[in-house]
């Protein structure tokens, strides 16, 4: 049996539209170092954190109020041997309204425990999704990585 992809879910009192708007405000919860579009089908953006992590994403599915899927086009980790671990994986934000609440289910399809980066990525995604993104949705203020001057 294959190991499960990384996923985490939480519920909030906000509407699906509010959750969707927060998800697509990637600079508001992941990093102020995002370059490019983050809200529309086929938008591409890059993320960089110091010299440790850089990746390029394309939005391959965007359904307002319901779903956003990113495809990882490029990836670099300074701390792994295999630079292809994320390449070709997808990152899905599924938004479901249930009983006057909205559930956000985050899944990084292809991020599995066998990956060299899994432990670090597990902790990072958990913090960004369950803390920063959730706070952006519920309070209007996330905790993204601050803007920094980075070199490629």
Mean pLDDT: 94
CATH architecture: 2-Layer Sandwich
DSSP E strands, number: 7
Strand arrangement, largest sheet? 1-7-6-5-4-3-2
**Strand residue content:** 35-45%
Report the major sheet: 7 strands, antiparallel
**CATH fold node name:** Alpha-D-Glucose-1,6-Bisphosphate, Chain A, domain 4
The number of domains: 1
Just give the CATH class. Answer: Alpha Beta
* DSSP summary: helix tally: 3
By secondary-structure content and strand pairing, the structural class works out as: alpha+beta
Provide the helix percentage: 10-25%
For the terminal residues, how far apart are their CA atoms?
A: 39 Å
C-alpha-based Rg, rounded = 15 Å
Specify the CATH homologous superfamily. Answer: START domain
Low-confidence region ranges? none
Question: Order of SSEs, N→C?
Answer: EHHEEEEEEH
Shape: globular
Would you mind describing this structure in some detail?
The chain has a single domain, classed as 2-Layer Sandwich (Alpha-D-Glucose-1,6-Bisphosphate, Chain A, domain 4), CATH 3.30.530. By secondary structure, it is α+β, with helices and mostly antiparallel strands. Helices cover 22% and strands 36% of the residues. It has three helices and seven strands. Strand 6 (90-98) and strand 7 (101-109) form a beta hairpin. It has helices at residues 16-23, 26-29, 118-139; strands at 6-12, 35-36, 44-49, 53-63, 67-77, 90-98, 101-109. A seven-stranded antiparallel beta sheet has the order 1-7-6-5-4-3-2.
């Amino acid at each position: 049996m294959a190991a499960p992809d990384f996923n985490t879910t939480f519920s909030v009192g906000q509407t699906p539209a509010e959750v969707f708007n927060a998800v697509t405000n990637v600079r508001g919860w992941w990093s102020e170092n995002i370059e490019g579009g983050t809200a529309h089908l086929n938008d591409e953006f890059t993320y960089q954190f110091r010299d440790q992590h850089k990746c390029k994403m394309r939005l391959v599915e965007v359904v307002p109020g319901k779903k956003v899927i990113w495809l990882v086009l490029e990836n670099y980790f300074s701390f792994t041997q295999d630079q292809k671990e994320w390449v070709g994986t997808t990152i899905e934000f599924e938004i479901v309204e249930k009983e006057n609440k909205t559930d956000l289910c985050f899944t990084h399809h292809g991020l599995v425990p066998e990956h060299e980066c899994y432990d670090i990525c597990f902790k990072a995604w958990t913090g960004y999704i369950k803390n920063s993104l959730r706070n952006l949705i519920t309070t209007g203020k996330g905790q993204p990585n601050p803007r920094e001057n980075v070199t490629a």
